[in-house]
Structure formats: C-alpha cells, structure tokens
Amino acid sequence: MLNEALRLLRVFHDLSQKDLAAKLGVTKSYISEIEAGKKVPTLQLLERYAQVYNIPLSSIMFFSENIGKEGTAEKTRQFVSEKVLRLMAFIAERSGKQGDDEEDQKLSA
Questions:
Q1: What span, in angstroms and rounded, lies between the C-alpha atoms of 45 and 41?
Q2: Closest among 6, 10, 61, 77 to 36, alpha carbons compared
Q3: What is the dihedral of CA 3, 33, 30, 35, to 10 degrees?
Q4: Within a 10 A sphere around the Cβ of 31, how many other Cβ atoms?
C-alpha cells in the first residue's frame, strides 16, 4: 500500500506527477510507476518524499501500513473529534465563556 499512500500524499499536496518528479529529482514516468505499484521507491527517495512534504518518513510508512484497514477511518474520526472537543472546551474556559449557557437560558425565558 506504499504506492497508494505516496499517490494520496501527492494529491493531498496538490502536486502533479511532473511537479513532484521535479522536486524529487526523478522522472515523471518513475513517479507513475511507483504510484502504480510497478516499482518500489528506495529509502533515499522516501527520505526525499518526507522532505518535500515536510513530514517524518515514519509518518509516510505508518500511513501506508494503515490504508484500508477496517475501522481505521472511524477510529481516526473519533480520535480527532475528541481532540477538537477538548480544544473547544479549553478555549471556552480560557475566554471565560463557561457559564454563558445559564445566562442564555435566563434571557430566553
């Protein structure tokens, strides 16, 4: 699934195969073959991918290992939503807006 992870990362970063090839110092056809699963990228090339996308190589490998696993999308959605809710609660607490619900209820009554 490494080939699919690399393709998805390229698409996410809105790069054409030609643009990515130029950044990596390889040909467009080589990128095409990697993404099609016909060639396997070297470790050195994967390190260049990580530099281009400004992410650790381990993140690319983790992403490729977990593509298509059952329940991964749901677990990710749940993890992210919990983090967002905690962040929103933290912001509300810092801005002093914790008790506004009670005040709103009094005004609407």
A1: 6
A2: 6
A3: -30
A4: 25
- Measured in whole angstroms, the distance separating CA 29 from the mean position of its chain's CA atoms is 25
Residue 52 to residues 15, 24, 70, 73, 96, Cα–Cα distance (Å): 11, 8, 29, 25, 41
Tell me the C-alpha to C-alpha distance, in Å, between residue 102 and each of 41, 52, 85: 59, 50, 20
27 backbone dihedrals φ, ψ, rounded to 5°: -85, 160
Q: What is the largest CA-CA distance in the chain?
A: 68
Q: Are 31 and 52 in contact (CB under 8 A)?
A: no
Helix (H, G, I), strand (E, B) or coil at 38: coil
For residue range 90-106, list pLDDT tens digits in order.
888 888 765 555 555 55
Alpha-carbon span 82 to 78, nearest angstrom: 6
77 secondary structure, DSSP code: H
pLDDT tens figures, 55-89: 999 989 988 887 767 666 677 777 778 888 888 88
